[in-house]
Target: WD40 repeat protein
Amino acid sequence: MRILYTTKTLNIAFYIFALTLFSMSQSYGQEKEHTPFEATYFKGKTDKMKKGRKSFQLGKQYMELDRNYKEALKEFKKAERYNPTHNELIYKMGVCYFYQKKPDLKLAIEYFNKAKQISPLFSSNVHYLLARAHHLQKEWDEASTSYQLYGASFADSTEQWLLAQKRVEECHNGKMVAGTGLRLKIENIARVNSSSDDIGPVINRKETRMYITSRRDKSTGYDTQDGQYYEDIFVSKKSRSGDWYSPKPLGANVNTKGHDAVIGISPSEKTLMIYRGDNNGDIFLSRITKKGEVKTPERMPSPVNTDFRETSASFTGTGQVIFFTSDRPNGKGGLDIWSSKQFRNKKGKREWKEPVNLEILNTPYDEDGVFLTRDGKTLYFSSKGHNSIGGYDIFKSEKKGNKWTKPINLGDGINTPDDDIFISVSEDEKRIYFSSKNMGGKGGFDIFVAHLIGEERIPQFTQEAPLVASITPEIDHQFLVADLNLSSYHAKILDKDSKKPLFAKATVINNNSQEKIGIFYSDDLTGDLAFTAPSEGNYSITIEAADHLFVSENLYSEQGKALVINKEILMQPISKGSQIILNNMFYESSSATLSASSKADLNNLISFLRENPSVRIEIAGHTDNVGSKTKNEILSHQRAKSVVDYLVKNKVDRRRLKVNGYGDTKPIASNETEEGRRQNRRTELRIIN
Model:
């Protein structure tokens, strides 16, 4: 499937879910208000206990083995009649209401809250799903509170911290976006939809023909991993009365046993653009005959297609420029929007230029479902970033001269807290065809048309607020075990000379375990970078920006208390005289021996020198003023030499490295305080040429 989450991700999430359910069941007997299915709790009612337990176990099988929430719920309801205070049963009923084909979010919330009341110890296990249920109902404050409780409980699972923070930001965006954007009347195109996922409407200019992608029962091929049919392409025609006919599948030359999805139509309407799951996902073109027959798809050449994933595309009116989405390297993260122009080579053959990343449209999250209007002046797309209120939201950007404007969220008239994606816009731009998961309908994704009925409402909030920037997968089920103090780090990343914001990458590593905690990105418009980490730990933070000297930061609390860091970081261009402090270079006490905790900065140095082979550097050691000047000078020189020796050992040319020990002659803080002396004990890098 070309959108949302991979089958592998879903399988892992469900596997975690099943394992955790088992482990939870071992401790339920400790809760006073919880009633187990055991004879001691059913004196004189053994028959009822057995019936209830049988239904409970059968429901678990439906749920955990088949993910058949409908049948599981039937059995759980039977079990509930005999035992309404069994916490695992009540919790799982909430899960079923949440995940069934047509979710009942109100009942899901009711049962999650019941589970918390029955067993306070169990309460942390429901925070995420409870938050998600509130979120999907646009109950922003309740959702935000539960997301924060969820995120505060993870010490080692960075993805969970990031996910919680992203969700909290989406709730904030939801409150700000409310009542803004386009004035629309939304219509479910019932005749083209099924009880399965129906997505990606592609219409012709006259709006008489609609191609869609569906996983309905008539599709070719069956995915045993997620229990659904693979995506196939269908076509629907409009009757003279204006109604859409039931869609018919395209031929076997188009629909294979894998995923086949329609993603666009050329301006001439002679070519259908198709996504296939081959080679991680590529873009194909199919010629449309005068009779409407769709020919066998042909893969677009490199560099449009790569070994990475390409998922959606749209041509300009001339067909000479293509806009498409891909998760290839050198983007901002996840799926990004790229463009490529067609040209003729020396032999007169048409080729595509190396694609360009449209940075202003992209975020560290996924962008997908691009659609360019025929005049080439407006680009519609979906994004999980910017100021999304949840999942994919629909945005638009307008071309002003040679530049695209910052994307604007189309508002809560069309966007929901779930996924709203894959757009086609009518010729007069008065109708938007799209697919959504959270507007009601027959089940899963349905196809809708939004009719423009008035002037656009003025948005109050069009920029994404600074937050952790990372690619985070959707999580089906996660369970919490303890509360945790978190340290927060917030910095504004700027160029030292121009003071302009920089798009930078921050890599956070636990200096003690050498475990990578996560990779975070600053906002390219504001320079804001933020993340959280457990307060118990010593962390190196390496900040990198193109054409700039990396910055080494350290986050450490001696007492394990939560820290709140707010600072401005001025990054220096890679030029002669630029220098930084290596804040994660540690030595054994009163020794020149490098500590194992120095590995992060040592590896940073190696990477920097390999990426900049013409650069020569000085490694300089410094001490505080405790002890004799001679000993301090010797110690500082020996420590700097230890760093250089490590670099040489790792195949860095010795001629590129200079060693200096300055002792206590160049303090950067007062030696009258312990904190000042700590700052003066340092190792520096300076670019010589």
